[in-house]
Amino acid sequence: MPLYHRLLVPAASLLAATIIFLPGAAPAAPPTEGMTTERLVSQLRLAIDNLKTLRCTVHAQERLGDKYTQANSTMKLGYAPLRIFLRNKKGVEVLWVTGQNDGDAWVYPNSFPYVTLSLDPNGMLMRRGQHHSVLDAGYGMIADILRGSAQRPDKSYERSFRYTGDTTIAGRPCYQLSSDFPKFRYVTYTAGKGETVTQVADKFGCGEYRIMEQNGLAADAPIPTGKVLQVPNSYGSRTLICVDKKLYLPLLIRAEDDKGLFEQFTFLDVVANQPIPAQEFTKEFKNYNL
Q1: String of b and e for 70-91 (b: at least 16 CB within 10 Å)?
Q2: What PROSITE patterns does UniProt report for this protein, alphabetically (predicted)?
Q3: Which residues 6+ apart lie within 8 Å of 147 measured at CB?
Q4: Contact status, residue 65 vs residue 213, Cβ threshold 8 Å
Q5: pLDDT at 122 over 80
């Protein structure tokens, strides 16, 4: 999830103790009769896979080094083919459309010299100071976490998720899907010829950011052959997904690791599978500054 939400404009850093929150969250309630872990995971994955369009607002918290950032963005996405538009509260806009602009994103920085830039979504500028690529916007990260890596035979992290009861996020009833994975740790891995951070992250199902941070690597550059890396063996030690009871889409995603809170994303005003006019994914759309 990318972000994609900060879009090149870092938010103010805060101490961890001051930013951990669940907007509008109610205490957990007893499990809903008839709901099971298997059914919830299946419905969640099906809802994500069947998305045709998505509109929402995202509140994000991410740990960068020993500090945290907060960011708020509105987003709209179309699928098959993938199309993404994001705008943050500082007026920065990003548009990425499959097969256009040589694979680059159009970025309006809303700062001098007030011109639209073409930037690689996985390049250093767009990945600086954020956990995810703009291409992860929406729920792609969650689908990957639940699916796990086909290259990693150990599926104990994916199997650790359990339906643990009900809650409410911003007034909407939700199911809680929780993972408690005390085996989380960093392991050593020797990079093969031409391997990238993305490829290593795919093998371990751990996301790219901590590999880059721990080993001083860039997302868009090959890793030196034979370099010994420190890599997380899963996405987190504790993971919470609050799933909307009507939409079966996540309204909150929270991941912790050996250092505490790693990231939290809250999705508000979610509108799924309502038509979005094609012109809203063009840089000429009248409501954009692109």
Answers
A1: bbbbbbbbbbeebbbbbbbebe
A2: LYSM
A3: 45, 158
A4: yes
A5: yes
